[in-house]
Design a protein that fits this description.
single chain, 313 residues, mainly alpha, two-stranded antiparallel sheet, transmembrane
Length: 313
Amino acid sequence: MGALILQQTINALTVGSIYALIALGYTMVYGVLRLINFAHSELFTAGAFIGLALSGALGVAGHPMGGILVGLITFVVIGLAGVSVEIVAYRPLRRTSRLAPMLSALGMAVVIQNAVMLIGGRRPLIYPSFLPSGVIELFGAIVSYKQITIFAVAVVLMIGLELFVNRTNLGVRIRAVAENAETASLVGINPNTAISLIFFIGPGLGAVAGVLYSSFYGVATFTMGFVIGMKAFTAAILGGIGSIPGAVLGGFLLGIIETFATAWMPVLTGGLIGTEYRDIFAFSVLVLILLFRPAGLLGEHISEETMVYKSDF
């Protein structure tokens, strides 16, 4: 029993790492603009396909060290795509009602998904692994080097983001714009620069998650971003959207909930609910958290000044 619980925990941390990386993109954009970037999930997909194209162009398919190069280039390319999306689809609507940017975000999601489909094709593509092969046994559980690598990369990126936001001058500027863009502009901070930066970092992290996800499962499809993106959005809501630690916590918690529920529900229900219903658990969490704690587990500290800014945005 102990080995089974440990095995499921390892599986949960692997899935949770992917959710957390994608959730960071949602939470960063919302923390500054109070906007749900629905195109974020499709940029995750685009990142996976760009990684696939780069692996062939650079001839590094199957090489872990080549995966680092692919990940860096993919981060930059999708980061620039994210900035372009913000400039084209969101910036002109920044001072309008909340409905217009939301509809624009949905439209961009459709555009990106169809662009990926036209370029990459409709059929699932076999994805080369950039992750090291091999397994180790840990107290009766089997841990693959792929799982260790995904968890390690995710943790490094999360810590790096936290340090960047809280310990650097650019991070201070981002937090100032998140608090009040107009006041920040009065002290010499350009809100557009800070907003472009979060649209570069957030999608970049999602793109790395796309490469890791496809490398782990060995397949990429043009529709894979929809469900994964919704789960990552659920993770952001669960932890407290707008909070970077909340996105990380929500990602790992959702991974644990989904993995353990998927493993145990077929046993508890006598096979009535099988593993094919795994998506139900994630979306059930979304409904419950919206009903009973809409601010999320960590929530977001909101001052009176910020409340006024949010209501006016």
